[in-house]
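Input/output pair, single chain:
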Amino acid sequence: MVLALSTSNKIWLALFAGVFIAFALLSSFVFPRWRPDYPGERGRNWFIVATLALFVAMLFAVNVFAKEDEETHGEKAGETAPTETGGTESTPTGTTGKAQGDPAAGKALFTSQGCGGCHTFTPAGAKGTVGPDLDQALKGKDAAFIRESIVDPNAEIAQGYQPGIMPGDFRQKLSPKQIADLVAFLSQS
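Output:
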């Protein structure tokens, strides 16, 4: 996570952590050597207040400076974040029913996501038998149907199969561009 932070955030987070660690080391090893009764009767309350203040400051620093930027984290230029509502950013346009995406990238994604372990699909050289044979199941289906089958696999279950077998988290795991690429690849059959 630290690698994903901007330089200024790393500096501030390191500064807060350094102060917290320095206080812990000083109060554990250095101050007791100078004063064996450290923090003593009079200093105990101040020590507790200082410890709590540094603890709260560190929690604040982590919450503020280590927070991931939800708008740009993990996205490439020109992509948008997946939406909860299943927006139309990767659905087909026009009247042809063709998906907008890169079929070659979709093929690589089909392989990397392990789709071929469950589905038979000749263009991918896949021979899986856990899920429907996509060569047959996708005949005559448009890109919108294919997209829905990826992002909401339980919306329509192929005959002979049970709901809940296909992972339902591809909307969260894949960007809209990746979904469009996968739909473009699957639409070629």
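Residues 69-97 have pLDDT under 50 and may be disordered. The first strand starts at residue 120 and ends at 121.
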